[in-house]
Amino acid sequence: MPTAGRFSHDPGTRLPQRVALGVLLRSFPPALVDDVLDEVGRREQRQRLLPARLMVYFTLAMWIFRALPYELILAELLRDAPGLAPAVTPQEQASAAAIGRARRRLGVEPLRLLFEQGIPPAAVPAAAPFHHLRPLRLGELDVSMPATPANTSGFPGLAAAHPAGPPTARPARARSRLLIEGGSRRIIAAEVVGPDEAERLPDGVRAGDLLVTDEQPVSARLWSAVERLGAELLWPLPEATALGCATRLPDGSALAKLAAEDGSELVVRVLAGPGSRLLATSLLDHRAVPAGEIAELYEAHPAGPGFDGAGAYGHGDRLELRSKDPEMVRQELYAMLCVHLAIGELVDPNRGESACL
């Protein structure tokens, strides 16, 4: 049974973390959390030591108090928001194993729905849309997680960074694919993807969007899926990309045939980007969207791993997750997205001021 001293206030907890927790409680008030739990059928019919409402806030607090073990995260949360759960004696404090079981009972759906309800309504236009298009960035961020058998089988292609040590302590790398709205610079979708999922069109892209990717070989499958949806693409090309016969256009861009990764050919418009980089786009009409404006859009915020403060939730350009199975990994990711929505302005005070990506 845990001792009372084990759950005392951690003197190393910094004020910004406590402020961020307060912002979370205001952004996601208990009434909203209860509505979400009711919608997905997770609210208990009997009183528990770790009720579902408390566990929603616990998963959010995991990103605020990342250095603390489960028991101390719970202690910090109940210290600042004691009304989230019934009062208990020190002898009744939940163990890490009990907290883990309560996370599993909660599942992914409450966090997913809480995140989706926190995204600004689609009816509100992004700041300064680009030629009536909503710029979106599609990029990737490293994800570290325990290389357990469940994670390894659940995320094909998961690579262990250090083969030594027990599986639960061995860090492994996967990829988190992020979709970022250009006007608000908010992350509007994220998912861990395997190698066979990289060409799938991510959720959140719709007709009238301009999807800007990271540099990588062009995927004909993804390109075609975006076009079928009625969206557009801007794709930075890797060096030495082979282009077929090109027709020069008055604005300096060119119509060309581009060999995709699977060997098929795409008709694209190619233009000069920053430095010696070439950009390919599905915006074929140079009169409607001049090459210079496309290059300026890309250069204003080039594709890359620094996603507007997402690194604040990990180390540099890598997210660090502690979950040992895929469902809890996804729960952690949705919790991170909720935290990002709530406290993004604290992490990046300039977010939302840029009119471009």
H/E series: HHHHHHEHEEEEHEEEEEHEEH
Query: What count of structural domains?
Result: 2
Mean pLDDT: 79
Number of helices: 10
First-to-last CA distance: 52 Å
Number of strands: 12
The radius of gyration computed from the alpha-carbon positions, rounded to a whole number of angstroms, is 23 Å
Principal-axis shape equals elongated
Name the structural class.
Answer: alpha+beta
**Percent in helix:** 25-40%
Outline the biggest β-sheet. Answer: 12 strands, mixed
- Beta content: 15-25%
Poorly predicted spans: 1-11, 122-127, 349-357
Structural features, described:
The termini are far apart. Residues 1-11, 122-127 and 349-357 have low confidence and may be disordered. This protein is an alpha+beta fold and 357 residues long. It folds into 2 domains: 4-118, no CATH class; 134-323, no CATH class. It contains 10 helices and 12 strands. Strands 1, 2, 3, 4, 5, 6, 7, 8, 9, 10, 11 and 12 form a 12-stranded mixed beta sheet that branches.
Short summary of the structure?
The protein has 357 residues and is an alpha+beta fold.
List the helices and strands and how they pair.
Blueprint: H1 15-27, H2 30-39, H3 52-64, H4 70-80, H5 96-106, H6 109-118, E1 134-146, H7 149-154, E2 159-160, E3 171-181, E4 187-193, E5 209-213, H8 220-229, E6 232-236, E7 247-248, E8 254-259, E9 265-272, E10 278-281, H9 291-300, E11 314-315, E12 318-320, H10 326-347
Parallel strand pairs: 1-5, 1-12, 5-6
Antiparallel strand pairs: 1-3, 2-3, 3-4, 6-10, 7-8, 8-9, 9-10, 11-12
Helix pairs in contact: 1-3, 1-10, 3-4, 3-5, 3-10, 6-10
